[in-house]
Design goal:
By secondary structure, the protein is of the alpha/beta class. It contains 15 helices and 26 strands. The strands form six sheets. Strands 10, 11, 12, 13, 14, 15 and 26 form a seven-stranded mixed beta sheet that branches. The structure holds flavin-adenine dinucleotide (FAD).
Length: 573
């Protein structure tokens, strides 16, 4: 493979020299460091690199007086080399200033920081870094190494665990790539049409009649294997023969957190996941509002770290297809899995989360995080000051977001498919929207397309009454069209609300249908479901806050309650 490139751009010769030297000393052996003194020449260089097939790992641009042109450049860089990590290097407070992780000059001068904060919120950059000092700057290198790790994992792993050979457009190959990426397995893809792909098929003793072909790092060759077989090869499909203390269904943030805490308390813990660790969070390219990661963390990184942590405390992971049933059994519960398999546990946590309904308009997925957002928006509010934001959705969450964003935005437009907001939104919110001059509502309208060069620029609106379309400038599109809980597999004894979210604790009906409500003499623990000993945490739970931090928090609370439950059970027996 061609040596990957680290590019630095700085108009100031002295700081360009420092940046170039810092990178060359540490990474010069594995990467080609290219320095440019102007944004215009750097743009040309990016195009040359792409034409030559040279992979760009990281591009860093120094923000001098204002971050805006540098951020614009980095937004364009995304369209030329989409896999590259884009970094804005911000001042560190002049020569001789100590090496700090926080950009002190920008913290002091809030106004100067606005273009940077805006660039982050618009997805124009991946992160910012305070400029390195002249000596060893380990804080800078730690951040660069993390970026290189993320780039290598997504774009070019040096030591792939799996090689996939398949047709470029193969749906099954796409599924496999997604599965491996979300489970943190480094892989390389080879197009079956290419000379390289053909020679790899030949080396593997395959004629290409069955694709995709997977070549494992051990040399083992598999022709279109089922997901369970792949999980088994990585040791991720075995089920314990004995009854475990805790079975957790779902390895999203709530399930992973619960696994860390139950396993660290010494409870035998089985973590059952149908497809990939990390859940919805695992599919997020950058989670910016999770405590402790000021520059954000990719969902895949957060998931693999949490998974490793749970494993290191002794949790047993099994990613061998969905749990399809749950029933009380002697000494606890039986969990039914696909292929007639079963597992037994003294207590169960249902952390199967939900899935956001996605907007199926062309261009929307490609601009995710670069102006298009699902759900949580509070953290982005100030970043869209003075701009035009579109919100899709007609329920209270959309109304609340509109009112909140209108405090900062120049204009907020709520796009609604139906004829009015009245059907699904509370009247107090409708009143507030009506009284807010910079919110308008477009009824009988759908988003037909989203477009932009590296970041959202325009939306195509389709008027379903007249059939006409209109292209409008847009800085952000916030999609709030609801999430569906993954709880259809549960038995009827586990009471859910009218949308399928699981009721727990005080929310459980205390009277009414005795078969479907709490029947124990003791009150339910706060995260316990209507089936004593079965708990629920995270997005699948009625009333939960749909956030990574909330799911993690609930997972840890559920772990404590399961521990208490099991201790009482042990005392009684
Ligand atoms: C694109 C995107 C971006 C987001 N960005 C942010 C953000 O920046 N900040 C933030 O705070 N929140 C964000 N969220 C919301 C956040 O990801 C969720 O609130 C969080 O993941 C919920 O965690 P959970 O563990 O409850 O459920 P989930 O993450 O949904 O995980 C549930 C897991 O259960 C598994 N599962 C389901 N059914 C079964 C079954 N029958 N058997 C076995 N396994 C099963 C699923 O495969 C999944 O892995 C984002 C969501 C999305 C979709």
């Amino acid at each position: 493979m061609t040596t990957p490139v680290l590019m630095v751009v700085d108009e100031d010769a002295a700081s360009l020299g420092t940046l170039d030297g810092t990178l060359r000393r540490r990474y010069g052996h594995d990467y080609r460091v290219i320095s440019e003194a102007s944004l215009a020449t750097a743009l040309g260089r990016l195009r040359e690199l792409r034409a030559a097939g040279s992979p760009l790992a990281v591009v860093m641009v120094a923000a001098t007086a204002t971050a805006a042109p540098a951020a614009e450049f980095l937004a364009q860089a995304r369209t030329i080399q989409p896999a590259a990590k884009r970094v804005l290097v911000v001042p560190r407070g002049g020569p001789g200033a100590p090496s700090l992780r926080v950009p002190v000059p920008l913290v002091r001068d809030r106004q100067a920081a606005v273009p940077l904060l805006r660039a982050i919120a618009h997805g124009m950059i991946d992160t910012y870094l305070p400029a390195p000092g002249a000596g060893r700057d380990e804080a800078f290198h730690r951040a660069v190494s993390e970026l290189l790790e993320e780039w290598a994992r997504d774009a070019a792993p040096a030591m792939p665990a799996v090689r996939i050979i398949a047709h470029q457009q193969s749906t099954r190959a796409h599924e496999l790539r997604d599965l491996l990426a979300r489970n943190g397995v480094p892989y390389v893809f080879h197009g079956a049409e290419s000379a390289d792909g053909q020679s790899r098929l030949q080396q593997a003793g395959q004629d290409g009649s069955i694709l995709p072909v997977l070549v494992m790092y051990t040399g083992q060759v598999l022709a279109d294997p089922p997901n369970e077989q792949i999980a088994a090869l990585f040791g991720l499909a075995s089920l314990p023969a004995t009854t475990v203390d805790v079975a957790i269904v779902g390895a999203g943030p709530a399930g992973l957190s619960a696994a860390v805490y139950t396993a660290s308390e010494g409870l035998s813990t089985l973590l059952l996941e149908r497809e990939a660790i990390g859940g919805q969070a695992g599919s997020s390219s950058l989670i910016r509002n999770y405590l402790g990661f000021p520059r954000g963390i990719s969902g895949a990184s957060l998931a693999t770290r949490a998974f490793e942590q749970a494993w290191s405390f002794g949790a047993i992971p099994s990613i061998a297809g969905p749990v399809t049933g749950l029933e009380p059994a002697a000494g606890g519960f039986t969990l039914r899995l696909t292929g007639g398999k079963a597992s037994h546990a003294r207590s169960v946590l249902v952390a199967t989360g939900g899935s956001y309904r996605r907007l199926a308009a062309p261009g929307v997925d490609a601009l995710l995080g670069a102006g298009v957002f699902y759900g949580a928006t509070g953290s982005e509010s100030t970043a869209f000051a003075g701009e035009h934001i579109f919100i899709v959705g007609a329920a209270n969450s959309a109304g609340q977001a509109a009112v909140n964003l209108a405090r900062y935005a120049q204009q907020v437009t709520i796009v609604v498919r139906g004829g009015s907001l009245a059907a699904r939104m509370s009247q107090y919110l409708i009143d507030e929207i009506t009284a807010t001059p910079n919110i308008d509502v477009r009824t009988a309208t759908q988003i037909a397309a989203a477009e932009g060069d590296g970041k959202l620029e325009t939306l195509t609106l389709h008027d379903t009454k007249t059939g006409s379309t209109q292209i409008v400038p847009a800085s952000a599109l916030v999609v709030l069209i609801g999430a569906e809980p993954q709880t259809g597999w549960l038995p009827p004894q586990i009471v859910r609300d009218e949308h399928g979210f699981i009721l727990t604790g005080n929310d459980l009906p205390q009277d009414g249908d005795p078969a479907a409500s709490w029947t124990q003499p003791r009150p339910p623990l706060p995260l316990e479901t209507s089936m004593p000993g079965v708990f629920s945490a995270g997005d699948a739970r009625h009333g939960s806050i749909k956030r990574v931090a909330s799911a993690v928090g609930e997972g840890s609370i559920a772990a404590t309650q399961m521990y208490q439950y099991l201790q009482k059970l042990a005392r009684r027996s």
